Structure formats: C-alpha cells, structure tokens
Amino acid sequence: MSTPTFKQVTRENLNLNNPVLVQVLGICSTLAVTNKLTNTLIMTVGVSLVTAFANYTLSWIRHLIARRVRMIFQVLAITFYVVLLQLILNAFVPAVARSLGPYVGLIITNCIVMGRTETFAPANPPLISWWDGFTSGLGYMLVLGLLALIREPLAFGTILDIPVFPPEYLSSGNNWTIAIMAPSAFFLLAIILWVFKTRALKIEAAAKAPKPATAGGEA
Amino acid sequence: MKINKDGHIFTISFTFFMTVVLVFPLTLAYVGTKPIADAYWLDQHVIKTLASMGLPADAKNMEKAREEYKKLDKYTIGKLAKDSAGKLIVVYDTIDYDAIAKDPTLLHLFPSDSDRAALAEAKMTMDDVVSKALQDNSYTGNIPAFFYVTEADGQKRFGGDFTGPGLWGNVSLAVGSNADLSEISGMRVLFNVETPGLGGRIEEPGFTAQFDKIKPASNVGLVFNHPGTPAPNGFDAISGATITSAAIKDTINQRALVLLKAFVAQKGGS
Asked: Which one-letter DSSP state was computed for residue B217?
C-alpha cells in the first residue's frame, strides 16, 4: 500500500470515511458531550490533538514495536496525551473540565483514536499520520458540532452561552428537556446519518454510471 | 549486532524505556499545573463554605468572597507538630464520632490559646492551615474536619467540612447550621468521585438546594422522603444512586451533625 496524500486523507476523514457517520465510532461521547457547544468544541479539539499526536508518536516508533505488543504502546501513547490534556484542562479551564466530567479521561478508549493508531500509524510515516489523526478528529468535530448547534439552542436557548432565544424560552420551562439529555442525540444522529448515507449512495451510483464525456477528475 | 525486535529482551526494555520517557514529562506537567489547579480548588472551597453557611458568595466576585471567608473563625481537631524540615504543621486526630456523639466534651478543638501563640510565632494563620490541608488532599478529598463560626445579622452561624465514605471514595461536604442546630443553612459537595451521571449528581444545585433550611430531627437527623409525603427533615435520594444518597445522609447525620453539635456546645452562646 502506498502512502496516501494529504488531500486524500483529508477527504477520507472529513467526508467519505467520516469516523462518526461512516465508521460509526465514538458514539458514546457523541451522545454525552453535545448539549453545549463550548464543551463539544473543547472535547473535539482534545480528541483531534490526542489522535494526531498519538498517531505521530506511534508512527515514529513503528519499526521498533513488536506486532504482538503493539496495543500496549498504543494505550501508553494515547494515555500519555489524554492525561496531559486532562492536566491542562483542569488547570486552565476548570469549569469546563468539571462539566466534561469523565469524558476527557474516556478519550483513551475512544474508538476513533484506537482505530487510527491501529490501522494508519503502523503503516505510514509520522507526518501524514499526524495529519490523518488530526483530520479524523476534525471529522468527529464536524458531526458533533452540528449536533451541539441543534441541541444547545433547544436545550438552553443559547449558542456558545450567548442567548439566541428570548428569555421566556427558559424561564417559563418551555425548553426541550430532552435536548439536554442523551436520547435527543440519538434521534438527531440518526437523521444526520440518514441524510448523509442517502447522499453517499447517490454519489456512489453516479460514480458507477457511465461517465459523460465532459466529466473529469475523480468522482 | 542486529536487534531482534520480536525478542523478549528488546520488547521488555523498549517498553520500559518508552514508559519512562512518557511518564517523566507527565510528572513535570503535573507538578507545573498543580498550583494553578489548586487555586481553583481553594476558591471553590471558599464559595461552597460561604454558601453552605448562608453567607453571600458570588463566584464572579472572588475578592469579596475571599475577604468574607477570611473573617470566619476557623477550628479543627489536631495538634501542632514539626515536620522533618522543622516546619510547623498540624497533625489531624482520628475522630471517634460515636464517642463524641455520647459526650460532646470529648471534642478538643484546635487551636487552643497556646497553639494560637505558636502559630503566630511561626507567622501562620488558620487560613494557611486550611489551605495546606486542602492542597494536600486535592486528589483524595480526605479533608480534615474544619469548623467555622461567624456572626451575621446579629446571629451566630456555624459551618464545617465533613468527610465520609461514598461509593468509590471520599465524599466531602460543607454543612452550615444556625445557632441551635434546628436548621441546616445549606449543604455543598466539596469533593466526590461518585459515578458520573448518577451519584455524581449530588453536586448539582437541584440536589444540594434540598438542604437549604432543612430541619433535622433531634433524634434521627435527616431522612429520605417517601414518595408523595415529603417530611420537614426529608430529602429526595437520587434514583439509581442508593449508596451515594445514603452516604450523604449518613455523613450528615453521623458525622456533620454530631461534630457540629459538639462544636456549637463549645462555641455557641454569646
């Protein structure tokens, strides 16, 4: 297998092979941290950086790791970056760290991170591995950000803690309690998956159909 | 010499090497960020202690809150000692709650007058003692019993930090009361490592607000509400968090109220 280009990796991770929409990974945190956009952004930036650097580190030492103990190294590298992230969050944004609760620590077991370090890092050079991890995180961020953008106004009447609905929305108890809770993300995610999958199938069908003479480049 | 990367010796030594390489920077990061994280932890303590005693506490105006907190008269249970470097420290006594429940005079408060003189000589205040204890236990929540007394609106107010066993680790509560222990002015959770989303919800305002102005019965203290029949000394447990809810009840009844009663007996009156 030849090393993919930066452009290919970006396209794969953000769109055609999106970790949440196509691989359906990282769903636990998708449900848990998307009721406030601030939390979502910090969490997803965290996942992006952890995946990127864990991938980088593991790719860098990939020739030194015996195949049968690779998981020990994966967990070691991932844990290192997660604990580092946790210390930084605790020190500089303690309120956010508290509201994210256990989910920062649980990045260690986030399937996206494990998936990338298991499949991409052992087979590719460090820099492209970093980029692959980072864009995987961005693909995760795209979907989670979208969910949070819908959930936060419905749940709290705000976006990034800035009120977007009149105060009566909250004070009179008109807000959607379900949007605060995890099940709402289930419904929303299902709808997003549906739209995305329909589109992906169309693209696939178009690619299979005989190309008109004017169409150029990759589909 | 050719390295056999699948061999035992290389695998073990390389794993060891990588662990050291990764753990060392983490240690540095921990040491480097602890003072910053502790500052937040200490501020939270200030806000929660004041709030539990029904005193004004606004997290947006920390200056004023710290000022207010400084005015509290602080006590604990322990004695002075010197550490290996010759620095004055407080050694905290193990508390026998049952004995104090039977005989409140067994509560020996620190600082006594001679302790006060020794502290003053070492240029230490009780605030330093409290903040050191908090920083030493910021990851375990094993906060020693501290007591607070102050006067607001011509009334004495009492409060304290009380630690008890939760489901996974220590649960530390700030509990305040009025001058005759007939009413708890408030309760705040200082530390917990309970199950997130279940027992961990004890720190949410929806749970702690139940303890504002709750009236503990003199014989049984606080009880759980039965569905449909709220009691004046009852509070709602958290569904699915039986052990954590019971830990809150027991820590308040068997520890906080016992110690506060003994404390009020000594420092109450006018």
From this structure: B
> Which residues does chain A have within 8 Å of residue B169's beta carbon, measured at their own beta carbons?
none
Residues of chain A in contact with residue B29, where contact means CB-CB under 8 angstroms, are 84, 87-88
Residue A82 CA from chain centroid, whole number? 15
C-beta neighbour count of B40 within 10 angstroms: 18
Q: B214 — phi, psi (to 5°)?
A: -80, 145
Nearest to A104 by CA among A45, A46, A28: A46
Q: Where are the domains of chain A?
A: 6-208
- Asked if residue B196 lies in contact with residue A102, where contact means CB atoms within 8 angstroms, the answer is yes
Q: Per residue in A127-173, pLDDT tens?
A: 999 999 999 999 999 999 999 999 988 888 888 888 888 877 777 66
Alpha-carbon span B270 to B267, nearest angstrom? 9
Q: What are phi and psi of B201, to 5 degrees?
A: -75, -5
**For residue range B180-204, what is the model confidence (pLDDT) as tens digits?**
889 999 999 999 988 877 888 899 8
| pTM confidence score | 0.79
Contact A66 B6 (CB under 8 A): yes
